[in-house]
Amino acid sequence: MRFIGKLADEVDVPAGEVLVQEGTTGHEFFIVMEGALRVEHGGTVINHLGPGDFAGEIALIDRGPRTATVIADVPSRLLVIGHREFHSLLLEYPSIQITVLQALARRVRHTDPEAGR
What we know:
By secondary structure, this protein is α+β, with helices and mostly antiparallel strands. About 35% of the residues lie in helices and about 35% in strands. The protein has helices spanning about 1-5, 55-60, 85-90, 95-110, and strands at about 10-15, 20, 30-35, 35-40, 45-50, 55, 70, 75-80.
């Protein structure tokens, strides 16, 4: 976890803060240290994230628009990693790359049940 701390900024966000807006360009990856985030797609809640969870990886991996909106449900403490640092992290630490890819696969299966066929 120390190596992530070197690449990340620690930020406190208030409840209601929109961290990621669906359809916009993504530049950051977020790791929840404390608190809770809500993930919405098309205005519908599709997931809740807590300590140890992360958000923002999809747009950084494929350089496409954000696929969901992420909002702080309660005051939260996050690690924020920029685009360049995110890719460095994945290249340098294959175990993190695997974790991110597994989470990405779960999210795709959750939002598109046909994807697993």
